[in-house]
Design a protein that fits this description.
The complex is a heterodimer of chains A (170) and B (822). In chain A, 49% of the residues lie in helices and 12% in strands. With 170 residues, chain A is of the alpha+beta class. Chain A has two domains: 72 residues, no CATH class; 81 residues, Glutaredoxin. In chain A, strands 2-3-1-4-5 form a five-stranded mixed β-sheet, covered by helices on one side. Chain A is elongated, with a radius of gyration of 19 Å. Chain B has four domains: 75 residues, Ubiquitin-like (UB roll); 222 residues, Rossmann fold; 191 residues, Dimethylsulfoxide Reductase, domain 2 (3-Layer(aba) Sandwich), CATH 3.40.228.10; 99 residues, Barwin-like endoglucanases, CATH 2.40.40.20. In chain B, 28% of the residues lie in helices and 19% in strands. Chain B contains 25 helices and 33 strands. The longest helix of chain B is centred in the first third of the chain and has 17 residues. Chain B is globular and about 85 Å long. The chains are: A alpha+beta (170), B alpha/beta (822). Chains A and B meet through helix 4 and helix 5 of A and strand 7 of B. The complex binds iron/sulfur cluster (3 copies) and FE2/S2 (inorganic) cluster (2 copies).
Chain lengths: 170, 822
């Protein structure tokens, strides 16, 4: 394999320290019904479920890799690709929609150059459209990680991005 | 029995039947899509809806609902018909309806039901699926656009095959069947999923566009690869075997096959088949006539007389083996053998001494009827995969305990609660003796054991095999050994399985006797779910033993080879064996066959052995002849020609018959006549006839006279700094014949050497690196395969391959000490 190719692969697949997954598996290995807690633990650790970690879990818990994949794709909580440090969610529920959510969504797409459920290459942002967040009074609504931003406008999109661009990645 | 009414008919059915079962039993057809009698109830497709009066006419699935006394069921009311039409309309909504180019057409449940329910328009409209078709492997095409999400593929792969390659992924409308991370299918390619898929989502690629389903003639026969003796249906058109056809009612295995059985049929109509007799003239093999060939061979055999010898493959029929023996008797020779002379020793020496019979006192059906399985070597799955399925089902559905004693881990080790004890290669007999020792010392033996002949001698000999002493050399702990012995002895029913064959020289008479001792000691013989099953390698290995095609008075295979080298064998007739590749010590074999005066080889292909012959005869495959095969558990099965003979090929039966006639003898006229003779002379076959064998054969009885035998242990001259190489069978192959089956060769095209991760990283060897394996016999270059299953210091290599024949470096010892370099 040429060095360039090797480097490319490395870029796509960040090197995963499997000893972290091993530790999580160690913790649950003897418990019945350990698959879900292990998967959740591993996701908390890496921010997503890397394929190599899924393979390791399959081998150590003696379940089929396919079975793990079935679980991972069944539950929305699991992510199979690395996620951004900041998860931007914009509500597209009825109230927010009426109040102009589509423009907010478009603006984020334009500024971040990513679409729904995608992540920026620098792993800073993941963008997601979500259904009603239960705060219709503040429509249109956006969230970044746990912070809520009500009455969103196009300017506010800029402000949010400027703000989070300054924040450290780690 | 439960009484109920189905469609105004009074019927009865067994207590635990479902409505579907009860209807089927009484000749009433309820349509199904997701239900399969081999699989656990699923109830997903709602095709089988029926109305039950007691449930206020509610529509319920027949395939999952158990019957109750007095139930009144209607299977085809207008409402039900409407509901089924709706189910079909919804299924057809996103389906491509590309029947004209679908291989499943004519055999497709969806197509047939759509026709039957006259769904000629759809009230709904939606976009068609647009899934990418998986063409990544040469055997199975996966087109999820045609999928009806019945889940049968994923379920069979889990419940029976226990590979688990497939799963439902995503939810709701997005749901589909996939492999992990939507990777291409990469599994053991048994084709079980293809066989149960009700639509054209999973198709056998070697059969793609070969023939329409209805243009095939189905011919029932028996698989000619391993000794499991699976029943097989060949799909034939224009004298060509184009595919294998799934028949869920066929055989004890209900149509289940392994990769070789399902995808390995191409050797039958292979372009590489020999089609004319060849004779060596001026150093080259040239075409000749049968008359000339028979003339030359008869003359040579006559002159050689008692110094004629014969080697046969245990793939030919019982009738052919008998006739081959008669041919040898005609020239006054009793030098004949098969399988290198050692691969049958477990039966012909071990069991004969221990049990008084050269056959296994157990059947494959016992696997699911026992409480505990003691499996010697995980290879049992690879050598006899459909027996492997039985083990999977026993463990997963019947909670049978699985203990494995092996020199490596394997697929079986992954079954729920399977216990795999890994011993140092070559110490298995010592471990088994230690088990016997524990059973005797801990008073776990059956009351009758002490009165069995040989008990005192055995007890004395076992003194050296205390768990502590054996633990020190075998790599297990004394506690492991004690536990294993106790588990086995205390189980109500227990069955021992072990494979034998050319790549397992350590699985010899001593191993067989050591195992028989355990069964005799604990009284686990002659009862359902008990016994010892010696699983011989080839489709008719047990038959070759039953027909007595091995040396009793004359030379055995080893002596025959030596005789060729020394000149005491003048003419050697080899029918179907390929010793140059499959017998240990390649250099010695090749030199001996080069030396022998006159070599005749009858085979399907120009094998490495045939290429050395003076006369080569084109023989028939199992699909072109009549006769019987005997499985490992002595199921005697009748095969009939599925196609006409290829080219000028003749069956071995005809070849031997012609020679006997030429030599002035009177051969039996037909295989049927020979079988009559077999049934009146071979123990256990009494009373059998072709007619009585029917489609799935009959069991030849095995009656045992137990005695204890003291088994010799192997001497373990381990060489420091060297690795222990053990040989065996790869899952996709059987002997050297599977090299001519496209399926097996696609999946596993060449030899390899498997090593542990630790050894690989120590020696900086990566997957697929070419490594040189060197023994005292020589060296060979093989691809490295790195796996979790190998213990450190142990290597595994399959033996099937001509190009990369491991027998170039193995001498027939159970363990070969080798070094590895890059
Ligand atoms: S071919 Fe066999 S192992 Fe492969 S997915 Fe199908 S059932 Fe499973
Ligand atoms: S691929 Fe075939 S067997 Fe599997 S779920 Fe789809 S229709 Fe059923
Ligand atoms: S090779 Fe053996 S297990 Fe496989 S289908 Fe043939 S008889 Fe059955
Ligand atoms: S619709 Fe956006 S928060 Fe309810
Ligand atoms: S066959 Fe009964 S629900 Fe599918």
């Amino acid at each position: 394999m040429s060095e360039a190719v090797a480097q490319q692969i490395e870029e796509q697949e960040p090197v995963i320290d499997l000893s972290l997954a091993d530790k999580i598996i160690d913790k649950y290995i003897d418990l019945p019904g350990n698959l879900m807690p292990v998967l959740q633990g591993v996701q908390d650790e890496y921010g997503y479920i890397p394929r190599v970690a899924a393979d390791l879990i399959a081998e150590r818990l003696n379940v089929y890799p396919s079975q793990i994949y079935g679980v991972l794709t069944f539950y929305a909580q699991f992510h199979l690709k690395p996620r951004g440090r900041f998860i931007i969610r914009v509500c597209v529920g009825t109230a927010c929609h009426v109040q102009g959510a589509p423009r907010i969504v478009e603006t984020f797409f334009d500024k971040l150059h990513i679409g729904h459920a995608e992540t920026t290459p620098d792993l800073r942002y993941t963008f997601e459209k979500v259904a009603c967040l239960g705060a219709c009074g503040m429509a249109p609504l956006a969230m970044v990680n746990d912070s809520t931003y009500g009455s969103m406008t196009v300017q506010k999109v800029d402000e949010i991005i400027n703000d989070y661009n300054q924040r450290p990645l780690k | 029995m439960v009484n109920l009414t189905i469609d105004d008919k009074q019927v009865t059915a067994p207590k635990n039947a479902t409505i579907y079962d009860a209807a089927k039993l009484n000749g009433i057809k309820i349509p199904i899509l997701c239900h399969d009698s081999k699989l656990k109830p699923f109830g997903a497709c709602r095709m089988c809806l029926v109305e039950v009066e007691q449930m206020k006419g509610r529509q319920i699935p027949a395939c999952t609902t158990p019957i109750t006394e007095g139930m009144i069921i209607r299977t085809a009311t207008p409402d039900i018909i409407k509901a089924r039409k709706m189910v079909l309309e919804l299924l057809l909504l996103n389906h491509p309806i590309d029947c004209p180019v679908c291989d499943k057409a004519g055999d497709c449940d969806l197509q047939n039901l759509t026709y039957e329910y006259e769904v000629n328009a759809n009230r709904f409209a939606d976009a068609k699926f647009n899934h990418v078709i998986d063409y990544n492997n040469p055997l199975i095409e996966r087109d999820m656009n045609r999928c009806v999400l019945c889940g049968k593929c994923a379920r069979i792969c889990d419940e029976i095959v226990s590979f688990g390659a497939l799963t439902f992924m995503d939810r709701g409308i997005e749901t589909k069947i996939a492999c992990e991370f939507e990777a291409p299918l990469n599994c053991e390619f048994c084709g079980s999923c293809v066989s149960v898929c009700p639509v054209g989502s999973l198709l056998a690629r070697p059969f793609k566009f070969k023939a329409r389903f209805w243009a095939l003639t189905n011919q029932k026969t028996v698989c000619s690869y391993c000794g499991t003796g699976c029943n097989l249906t060949l799909g034939v058109k224009d004298n060509k075997v184009l595919t294998t056809v799934y028949d869920e009612n066929q055989g004890f295995h209900k149509g289940q096959l392994c990769c070789r059985g399902r995808f390995g049929y191409q050797f039958i109509n292979s372009e590489r088949r020999l089609t004319t007799p060849l004779v060596r003239k001026n150093g080259t093999l040239v075409e000749t006539t049968w008359d000339e060939a028979i003339e030359v061979i008869a003359a040579k055999m006559k002159t050689a007389g008692a110094s004629t010898a014969a080697l046969a493959t245990p793939r030919i029929t019982n009738e052919e083996l008998i006739l081959f023996k008669e041919l040898m008797e005609t020239v006054g020779s009793n030098n004949y053998d098969h399988s290198a002379g050692y691969a049958h020793a477990a039966l012909t020496k071990g069991f004969v001494q221990s049990l008084g019979v050269a056959a296994s006192p157990a059947s494959i059906l016992d696997v699911q009827k026992t409480d505990l399985l003691l499996v010697i070597k995980t290879d049992t799955y690879e050598t006899h995969p459909v027996v492997g399925f039985e083990i999977n089902m026993a463990v997963k559905n019947k909670e049978v305990k699985l203990n494995i004693l092996s020199d490596k881990r394997g697929k079986l080790s992954k079954l729920p609660n399977a216990k795999t004890l890994i011993h140092v290669p070559g110490t298995e007999i010592a471990v088994i003796n230690a088990l016997a020792k524990v059973i005797v010392d801990e008073k776990l033996a059956d009351g009758t054991a002490a009165s069995v002949p040989g008990f005192a001698e055995l007890e004395k000999a076992l003194a050296a095999f205390t768990p502590d002493a054996v633990a020190a050399q075998c790599g297990l702990t004394a506690a492991d050994i004690k536990q294993l012995a106790t588990d086995y002895a205390k189980a109500e029913k227990a069955l021992i399985l072990f494979p034998v064959g050319l790549p397992y020289p350590g699985h010899n008479e001593d191993l067989a006797s050591a195992l028989a001792n355990l069964a005799i000691l604990t009284g686990k013989l002659g009862k359902e779910g008990c016994g010892v099953l010696c699983m011989a390698e080839k489709n008719n290995s047990q038959g070759a033993v039953d027909m007595g095609f091995y040396s009793t008075a004359g030379m055995d295979a080893g002596k025959i080879i030596d005789g060729c080298a020394s000149g005491s064998v003048k003419t050697l007739f080899i029918a179907g064996e390929n010793p140059v590749v499959s017998y240990p010590d390649h250099t010695k074999i090749a030199a001996a066959l080069d030396k022998v005066d006159f070599l005749v080889v009858a085979d399907l292909f120009m094998t490495e052995t045939a290429a050395m012959a003076d006369v080569v005869l084109p023989a028939c495959s199992f699909a072109e002849k009549e006769g019987t095969f005997t499985s490992v558990d002595r199921r005697v099965q009748h095969i009939k020609p599925a196609i006409r003979k290829i080219g000028q090929c003749r069956s071995d039966f005809e070849i031997f018959g012609a020679l006997i006639t030429k030599l002035g003898g009177k051969p039996s006229a037909t295989p049927a006549k020979t079988f009559e003779a077999i049934s009146s002379s071979v123990a256990g076959y009494a009373g059998m006839s072709y007619a009585s064998l029917g489609e799935t054969g009959a069991y030849a009885a095995v009656s045992v006279k137990p005695s204890f035998v003291v088994p010799k242990t192997m001497s373990l001259a381990s060489e420091s700094g060297k690795l222990a190489l053990v040989t065996g069978s790869a899952l996709y192959h059987s002997g050297t014949m599977s090299q001519y089956g496209e399926g097996p060769m696609y999946v596993c095209p060449e030899g390899y050497v498997e090593l542990s991760r630790n050894d690989a990283s120590k020696m900086k060897i990566a997957e697929n690196d070419l490594v040189i394996v060197t023994s005292s016999k020589g060296s060979i270059k093989l691809k490295a395969k790195i796996s979790m299953r190998m213990p450190q210091g142990v290597l595994f290599a399959p033996y099937h391959f001509s190009e990369t024949s491991i027998n170039r470096i193995c001498s027939g010892a159970p363990v070969t000490w080798v070094s590895l370099s890059k």
